[in-house]
Amino acid sequence: MSKKLKFEQIKRFECDLKTCIECGNCTFWCPIYHELPMESYVARGKNKMIRELLQGETNFSKEFAERLGKCTLCMTCTEHCPVHCQVQSTIIAARADMVKANGIGLLPGLIYRRLLLHRSLFGNVVKIASWLQVLLPKTEGRLRHLPLFLSALGKGRQIPSIASEFLRSQVPVFNKPSEGVKTKMRVGYFIGCATDFIFPEIGLKTINLLMRHGVEVIVPREQGCCGTPIWLGVGDFEIGRRLADANVKPFGEVDYIVVDCATCSSALKEYPKYLADTPERLENYKKFSEKIRYVSNFLVDELKLDLTGYQPSPEAKGKRITWHDPCHANRYQGIKDQPRQIIKSISGIEYIEMVRADRCCGMAGAFSIHHYELSKKIANRKAETIKSTGADIVATACPGCIIQLIDTLKRHKMPQKVMHIMELLQ
User: What are the strands, taking DSSP E only, across 79-214?
Assistant: First the structure.
């Protein structure tokens, strides 16, 4: 294999490597570096490591993979970088070249290259897991406790139960506005894996709210995983493209594609940047990504709902609510004001701004499985800021963040309830 082929993706983003001025400002902000203060774990160190790779001074070793994997891709370093170095792009590219060179292993290959590509098979496996989850101890409500011997999944972690009925089996393909309500637009709804299998009530809330306000909602059955775990997390761009192709195709004649998961909406928007390897794919991915709208900015910026009309759900009525910014909403998509506008407009609630509401919670998908102890340390800092608000509810709009925050608050025996922003609305 030639050097050019080996570093195909890194070379696409080589300009980002050269942007770094090695000032070290990233050391003040990186959540990993705060817990593991080693140069190789901060953006500056990773940039240097990848440059050394290009210069032939290192290779795709186990040590290289370990250092590269210790990153939540939260983009906090980029946000505070004086030259806005896009470190996340070079890390994602390096992961892709590493997979091309070394593969991803037997078990990850089975999960990502077999299950995620076939949604019906994936759903059947998750359904079987839902039957087996009765073996896990239940703590309260829908929460279950992963025993210590399941260390690969996070020792002692609190996880929500898998839903008894998945979202796609609860909603039809075509969902027209309520009777007597004029149709304003037609949108597609993208079902994220967590919403489909764990939090179907979030999807139902979103779809029903849109229908009440004159939006026809199409829920294509052909859609699958957004691909974040496989192409962004692991670095398998080949399978990422197959997932992207499958997702782009069914969303044809719609005005927008509404997504209520921050990670999914961010990933879908980035198909052109990372996965487009032909002119045809680039064109298709661009057309698709331009229609993607995160649910809060769709409600505020596109549907332009009257912000005085939001009514609280029974669970939110009269409560003090604070907001956690998902990294993939705030830093990746620049969506910060819209969710706050929505929450502040809900009648009968008190909004409390959290100190550093945009601090990474440490979830970062598979990162929290592979590095659960480190993930917990990052989350502990988030718990401190949540506690200081005195809020009753922590709202966010990323199922991954919800899972992480639930686990964190339970570990700290804190009373706050974690809710998706759509669950706050009547």
Answer: 143-145, 158-160, 174-175, 185-190
